[in-house]
Automatic annotation (TrEMBL):
SUPFAM superfamilies registered for this protein in UniProt: Fe-S cluster assembly (FSCA) domain-like (SSF117916), Hypothetical protein SAV1430 (SSF110836)
Family statement: Belongs to the NifU family.
GO CC entries: mitochondrion
Name used for this protein in its record: Scaffold protein Nfu/NifU N-terminal domain-containing protein
Residues annotated as transmembrane: none
Segments forming domain Scaffold protein Nfu/NifU N-terminal: 3-89
A biological process term (GO) from this entry: iron-sulfur cluster assembly
Gene Ontology molecular functions: iron ion binding; iron-sulfur cluster binding
Role of this protein: Molecular scaffold for [Fe-S] cluster assembly of mitochondrial iron-sulfur proteins.
InterPro entries xref list: FSCA_dom_sf, Nfu/NifU_N, Nfu/NifU_N_sf, NFU1-like, NIF_FeS_clus_asmbl_NifU_C
């Protein structure tokens, strides 16, 4: 089995591409070993010392390590864990299929929320996925005009991306949805969020 790797904007995260389907449902994030109990593959990866987060995409796995861990140690163990998983014949998830993506439009969404989700789904998620991450809609506050999102995979904690928020997601949402006044990361009070540079979305990146 040949597994390719790809760097991400976050030096603590690496994408591993096994050349076959990983998670058909779209994306799934595991922030600790407890969450990984439902996934045989995620459990194997969290058994590697230094692994702090595991993210599944349709055809890739993004592994995030702690600052004290070295890729020269974590990387070969990740190769081994992924190879052994596929050789075992186990399923990626043991639990029932998860709900639709956090950017999927629900029947009870109002027009503004539906527009926000459509932009996230069609314009922003594809770009984020190319760098081993994902973005999930969490909430929209009509009083403040703030959209709350959750970054997953390599985008979560990327040190080089905070300054790109206003030239990327925020500007795009404010342009197409006038009711939006800003975008914040879930769990951050200061309004800053880590995000890969999405400014080129304005240039029609597919």
């Amino acid at each position: 089995m040949f597994i390719q790797t790809q760097t991400t904007p976050n030096p603590m995260s690496l994408m591993f591409q096994p050349g076959r389907e990983v998670y058909a449902e779209g994306s799934k994030n595991f922030s600790n070993a407890r969450e990984a109990m439902a996934s045989p593959l995620a459990k194997r990866l969290f058994a590697i010392e230094g692994v702090t987060n595991v993210f599944f995409g349709i055809d890739f796995v993004t592994v995030t390590k702690g600052e004290d861990a070295e890729w020269e140690t974590v990387k070969p163990q990740t190769f081994e864990a992924i190879t052994n998983f596929y050789a075992s014949g186990e399923t990626v998830m043991d639990e029932e299929k998860l709900a639709a993506s956090g950017t999927a439009i629900a029947e009870d969404d109002d027009e503004i929320v539906a527009m926000i989700k459509e932009l996230l789904e069609t314009r922003i998620r594809p770009a984020v996925a190319e760098d081993g991450g994902d973005i999930v809609f969490k909430a929209f506050d009509p009083e403040s005009g703030l959209v709350t999102v959750q970054l997953q995979g390599s985008c979560d904690g990327c040190p080089s991306s905070s300054v790109t928020l206003k030239s990327g997601i925020e500007n795009m949402l404010m342009h197409y949805v006038p009711e939006v006044k800003g975008v914040v990361q879930a769990g951050q009070d200061d309004g800053e969020m880590d995000l890969l540079d999405l400014a080129d979305l304005h240039r029609g990146r597919k």
